[in-house]
Design goal:
The complex is a heterodimer.
Chain A (H helix, E strand, L loop, with lengths): L12 H7 L4 H9 L2 E3 L8 H20 L9 H10 L4 H28 L8 H23 L4 H15 L5 H9 L6 H32 L14 H4 E3 H26 L29 H9 L3 H16 L1 H4 L11 H21 L15 E2 L2 E2 L3 H26 L17 H4 L5 H4 L3
Antiparallel strand pairs in A: 1-2, 3-4
Chain B lengths: L21 H26 L5 H5 L3 E4 L8 E6 L2 E7 L2 H9 L22 E5 L10 E2 L5 E5 L4 E4 L4 E3 L11 E5 L2 E4 L1
Antiparallel strand pairs in B: 1-10, 2-3, 3-4, 5-6, 6-7, 7-8, 9-10
The chains are: A mainly alpha, B alpha+beta.
Chain lengths: ~450, ~180
Amino acid sequence: MSGHESTYVPKTGIEKWLDTRLPIVRFGADYLALPTPKNLNYWYTFGAILSICLVVQIATGIFLAMHYQPNTAMAFASVERIMRDVNGGWLIRYVHSNGASMFFVAVYIHMLRGLYYGSYKAPREMIWILGCIIFFLMIATAFLGYVLPWGQMSYWGAEVITNLVGAIPLIGEPVLIWLRGGPAIDNATLNRFFSLHYLLPFVIFGVVVLHLWALHTAGQNNPVGILIPREREKKDTVPFHPYYTVKDGFALLIFLMMFAVFVFFMPNALGHADNYIPANPLVTPAHIVPEWYMLPFYAILRAVPDKFGGVVAMFGAIGILFVLPWLDTSKVRSMRYRPTMKIFYLIFVLNGLILGWCGAQLPDAAVVPGMPSFFLIDGQLNSYLWLTRLSTLYYFAFFVVIMPFVGLKETPLRIPLSISEPVLSGPDAMSGAVPAQAEKKG
Amino acid sequence: MAESVVNAEHPEGGAPEGEATRRDFIHIAAGAAAVGAGVMVAWPLINSMNPAADTLALSTTEFDTAKVQEGMQVVITWQGKPVFIRNRTAAELQKVLADPMSSLKDPQSDQDRTKPGHEPILVVLGNCTHLGCIPTFGAGDYGGWFCPCHGSHYDASGRIRKGPAPTNLVVPEYAFTAGSTIKIG
């Protein structure tokens, strides 16, 4: 599984016996001995944090499933029973529901870190693509899970999202009925959503294994963004364990403290009060909003005046991430050395937050109340509708215009010859280093 | 059987560059059979997700439209979906009949959406044709319905006038069976 040589030496008799039959200890030892660049900062701890998030969701989910009833007549009450009567049920459910939010906080930081340091560029395209698959599966799993409590937001969220499928020309309607198992969202839908919500985390687990396999094969990126030549491996890398297990562990503790603040002091802050009203197929809540982590994509869906066009834009917003390695024309990985791109990157992050904000607002509401505005095509310019459209435009332009164009035009700063150069001086920082040009051949 | 050896130089089945052998044929045939078998195994599993017999059995519902007072609507369920039954006022009816076709996004006359002799009664599915929310009765710019989810405006004939919804509110298949009673489905 690893791209580096094995350093494991079995010591005891049982280890030697096992190593020639099932080298599982060697596998684990080599996994932890991965040579890791010594300059990783705290943005790099989110991979480990995410793996713990997945374990927390699977563990709490298994216990919730022991008490939950996937039946429209009983689902809502069974969740309330978990909250009130099951021993410690409130804790397990609040960890699971807030855990989903924490999972997405971590994954967004993890992805933005990869974007900033160019972790998607050759030879790491597969790590990035597998990560995109995990992200997509996470969204699907979170959506399916949100339907299970069978509250008003569960029901109407399911109605709106499954209707997206119905927007596909010709096959949309039959596929929609197949997906729901009937003409409307009902017991058949809840049953299959529960089944799939239980399945997908294990699929995610499998893709995570591939993600790490690709990581160990292509090697870990670092904030300087240069490949570490074999001659400098001893100087510029440290074994993953204990150096990064400790660093990741420290970051994890801080993260879990923030997690605990939500679970114990504000467990419903990220949810919607409407989901504590049992599902009612005859009443739509006045204001349907998805969970916060889907708001940017929901905003993109609403930005397009055409139904199918909106669906295409929303899925396109995720799909475009898959081809990112081929949209970026710059040979320089880290944006530390790309002063122009860095500015566009910061605007991109800000734009993502604006999109999220827009997703939670009514489209016709004024962005700045009282500001003079005029009517443009189908709405006031001073409305969330138009702010969302401008934001959506930047989101896509960042990938298809800015990424290819800036990469060709900008003059990057001088890239250090080794990851030691920025912090050390003298021969130790430079020996064995190759100029950036030579790196391209490899 | 000597004639079965296609290539005498490679009797084990290897062929000269670019030539197909019987072994290639067997590979392709076996592969195709495996794919076919895979599809046949997958189909019952996929088909099991289609609506079950008991779900399909709930396909019709009856309602007496005389219960709906003029200017009001009643919401009933049919196949788990809401159905609006609206008894429109003379003013509302006059307005929707007067609307020119050119002003409509999904052109359809009001007569095409009602049954002859029962013009004031409008029967439509209560799900917005955008993403399925239930539009609010009497709200919006056209006096019909307004969908709070994504801002679609419908007129008193249930026709889309403004907003993201692509088509008019769907008129289900129904008929007046006895007097004012309708059977949907």
